[in-house]
Amino acid sequence: EEEIPEDHPRYQDLITRHRIENGVEKGITHLQGMHAEGRGSAFDYLLGEETIPSADAAERAAAAHLLLAEQPVLSINGNVAALVPGEMVDLADAVDADLEVNLFNRTPERIEAIAEHLREHGAEGVKGLTADARIPNLDHQRAKVDADGIYAADVVVVPLEDGDRAEALQEMEKTEIVIDLNPLSRSPQVAEIPIVDNIIRAVPNMTAHAEELATASEAELRAIIEEFDREHALEAAEERIRNGV
Ligand code: PTJ
Q1: 107: which of 10, 25, 93, 223 lies 20 to 30 Å off by Cα?
Q2: Which residues contribute to the annotated binding site for ATP?
Q3: Where ATP is bound, by residue (predicted)?
Q4: Ligand 1 centroid distance, CA of 244 (Å)
């Protein structure tokens, strides 16, 4: 990362690409994560590489949900771990959530490497290693979760999530917060709170909102959630991507 000059017009995008490459080299990120990153990068380019107002509103509503939650869990995959490990630890601290490693392409080696990577960034008690419960209606490998983690959670943050799993979690009647740069993908389409923004910007902004709302009353938090319009957020993101407005 030191080799990229900060005034390079594509600075953030190049940093992101490097982090994913390093993640693959360290055994954290799956090779498919590079394809996912390429797709995300194209959508971000069309969004103007900025947090649009409807995404900021979604991030604020997500923070309110997390603060109200009894058992919030933040799900970590290979791309999330490579891109925003410290930022996820900060968000977990701000809203008192657990971190759970949950992989689409599950191997014990990657689970352990990601858990260790999170611990290096200050995480304590990383979940996802026990995998003693199953999400109903999903094939065996992809259904594995911790009984006292995602399985029991009332609010889950699932960044860059696979559509089948997003739907299965929705069927479990959890409040689902999805971060995904593609507003047409199934995961944001089924989520209660779809955040169409780069995870690199979304997570620190959720933490900032959570810190600002730390002393807000339950009524204030509920009002923020009530005001958020998920249909509008999805439409606004698509409108920006298609028409640049
Ligand atoms: O580590 P694993 O095994 O759990 O696998 C993780 C990946 C991401 C490889 C796996 O879940 C996958 O293949 O996901 P998809 O189906 O490619 O979906 C990834 C979605 O995330 C796409 O819609 C991308 O546009 C979006 N995306 C990619 N990078 C970012 C992003 N969204 C937000 N921020 C990003 N930086």
Answers
A1: 93
A2: 17, 39, 180-182, 186-187, 198-199
A3: 17, 39, 180-182, 186-187, 198-199
A4: 23
Cα–Cα distances in angstroms (integers) from residue 150 to residues 33, 78, 117, 155, in the given order? 22, 17, 20, 9
Superfamily of domain 53-243: Phosphopantoate/pantothenate synthetase (3.40.50.12640)
Ligand 1 centroid to Cα of residue 182, in Å, is 10
Find the DSSP H helices in 102-217. 108-120, 140-143, 163-171, 186-190, 199-212
218 or 139: whose pLDDT is higher?
218
* Any atom of ligand 1 within 6 Å of the Cβ of 185: yes
Cα of 220 from ligand 1 centre, angstroms: 33
Interface ipTM: 0.98
Instruction: Work out the burial of residue 90: count CB atoms within 10 Å of its CB; fewer than 13 is exposed, 13-18 middle, 19 or more buried.
Output: buried
> How is the chain split into domains, by residue range?
53-243
Mean pLDDT, to the nearest integer, of 117-136? 97
Beta strand segments in the chain, E: 72-76, 98-101, 133-134, 144-145, 155-159, 175-179, 193-195
Q: CA 191, CA 170: separation in Å to the nearest integer?
A: 7
Say how many residues make up the chain.
245
- pTM beyond 0.90, yes or no: yes
- Residue 224 beta carbon below 6 angstroms from any ligand 1 atom: no
